[in-house]
Amino acid sequence: xxxxxxxxxxxxxxxxxxxxxxxxxxxxxxYWYPVLPExxxxxxxxxxxxxxxxxxxxxxxxxxxxxxxxCPHRGARMSLGKDxxxxxxxxxxxxxxxxxxxxxxxxxAALTEGPSSNVVGKVRIRTFPAETRKGIIxxxxxxxxxxxxxxxxxxxxxxxxxxIKVRFRQVYGNWRQHAEGSAGGHFFMLHRxxxxxxxxxxxxxxxxxxxxxxxxxxxxxxxxxxxxxxxYVWQDDYPTLGNWPPKRLWRFSRPxxxxxxxxxxTVVQGIKHIGIxxxxxxRVPHFPQxxxxxxxxxxAIDSHHYLYMQISAHFPKNIFQRIWGxxxxxxxxxxxxKGRFNNQDKGVVRDGTEFEDRMGVHRPTSLFxxxxxxxxxxxxxxxxxxxxxxxxxxxxxxxxxxDSKIPIYLEKDDSSS
Length: 417
Fold this sequence. Notes:
By secondary structure, the chain is an alpha+beta fold. It has helices at residues 2-13, 20-23, 155-158, 175-180, 187-190, 319-359, 372-384, 390-393; strands spanning 32-37, 46-50, 53-60, 63-68, 90-92, 98-101, 107-110, 127-128, 130-133, 136-140, 163-172, 205-206, 211-214, 224-227, 232-233, 236-238, 242-244, 275-277, 281-285, 293-302, 305-314. It is built from eight helices and 21 strands.
């Protein structure tokens, strides 16, 4: 197992500019992405840029449409267009009045030339399939027919039993920096001074760092790369330096075993381990509240900005749990855990992006055991990215001598955890 892991690490570390992952500067396009809570889309179109594509989100007759935010005539923003024919599900460009059907993208009128304009029926604007579920707008960013939404969006988000809480913001940096740093041992340093963990004793490091592929998660119905670490070391001695981390009086509580931070975790909604999945989102059990499941997407806007979309699924058993859970979320879990705690990642994402701008591509290293997780994530993208991965498209390059396979996760009895 160890030698195979080492081969896999070397393969991922030798990632080149021609690999699917390296070329995905603005993300993997052949997927559904959560882009906006529906309540924030009013009667006026909204402009968004996702995966380098300018979009106009438009709501008409209780349906949401997504079109390219560039008129094919002269590039004027369609998000500044007007509803000149109410009830027809069309939008007119503000420049010359080219009017497009929102469902088909077909040009149905050119208002500044008249009903007999030659452009009618001969020009089309690109449309993007859009669906609204659980109060969230999802958009398919690929070309061609989309896969069913359920193939890309976790089942715990879509299930009627879950109550959904959403936060999102734009972050400076390349999306891959956040995905690579989403796990892999940074917790012990980066979040040590977090208000959310101020009274917790956090320990030093994981005794063993592992990353394994769960080929089909029985809950979310998709593959995940799982961080299957062992329990961690609370303090260790560094020769000539001393013990680390130092004991602090205010850190009087160790995280309960249910938390993934311990390296082990009790099961919540059938989920035990932290994991990452394509096209680039992390799943964390028992966050931001106990018995909740948390997902965060890193959705490229351009090469230096991304949409940080945080969606948590909560499962109150009765009205009292729902009221208390909502109150606690609004006071603490939302602003402190989803907000301040997760905002600590923004600085290192910025630094990593600027470092690569100056020094060139700088991948995680096989010398550092916790980097097995980001290295296997790169490997997972290169092999399995829909329509682009080597394994799914049978386009493995000649230089890739290692027939690398990510170690497979096998469920076992963890009742003693």
